[in-house]
């Protein structure tokens, strides 16, 4: 649990306990109705002072002193932690907005093209792409249904289909770009995208260490095929999440993404 939320929950529960004691204490000591006892308790804890009614008995006044000593700090703690939680959520929203911009740049520079390459190696691509022709009519339920389908899909990489020089040339050429993304501290806020970026960068490192792809032994090609499959799987899942984000927040970017959809064989950049 978020430590701020945990502290707020603790302070709030303690405050409820003190308020309960305060209400029943004033009811017994001051012989007042529950609504007046509640009023006394809130005014005491908030330290705003009494108005037309106030404790009149000696025991009631002593009780007020004890309530102030035990409860005011807790009351202020609830206010302080609630304020901190609101500010923290706002800061997280700003960080996530920046991160979603980074994810968008990744797919523009690397992700979409890499999906196209990986798909060309997959003999069962039609099974993976099923239902991924996204339109502006899609709802959250559509995205959830396709996400469930993708979790069951078999992502395959047929090694003989891989054009090693083309793949290596593309990814190694993006090495510096990927490295800068990995250095971005906001990535810690998005575990799934971080896993994807690490998988893609690992594939880049593997490819960059090999100079001659013509004479690679079958075992080494199979190893590289496994690295491609890992990146492919993570790419598709993250692409779907990114598309829903664009649809919900950036309709003009979503329009472009639909027209460059790597899963739509009929996609065209031209606006129809």
Overview of the molecule:
With 272 residues, this protein is mostly helical. It has 2 domains: 3-89, Helix Hairpins, CATH 1.10.287; 96-259, no CATH class. Helix content is 73%, strand content 0%. The protein has helices at 3-30, 34-46, 58-120, 125-129, 140-152, 164-173, 175-182, 191-208, 218-249, 251-259. Helix 2 crosses helix 3 and helix 6 packs across helix 8. It is elongated.
In short:
The chain has helices at residues 3-30, 34-46, 58-120, 125-129, 140-152, 164-173, 175-182, 191-208, 218-249, 251-259. By secondary structure, it is mainly alpha-helical.
Question: Which secondary structure elements does this structure contain, and how are they paired or packed?
Answer:
Layout: H1 3-30, H2 34-46, H3 58-120, H4 125-129, H5 140-152, H6 164-173, H7 175-182, H8 191-208, H9 218-249, H10 251-259
Helix pairs in contact: 1-2, 1-3, 2-3, 3-9, 5-9, 6-8, 7-8, 8-9, 9-10
Please give a handful of descriptors for the protein shown:
272 residues, mainly alpha, Helix Hairpins, elongated
Count the DSSP helices. 10
Written as H for each helix and E for each strand, in order along the chain, the element string is HHHHHHHHHH
Q: How many strand units? A: 0
The average pLDDT value, as a whole number, equals: 88
The total tally of domains equals 2
Instruction: Note the main sheet.
Output: none
Q: What is the CA-CA span between the terminal residues?
A: 48 Å
Low-confidence stretches: none
The helix/strand class is mainly alpha
The percentage of residues in β strands lies in under 5%
Shape: elongated
Radius of gyration: 30 Å
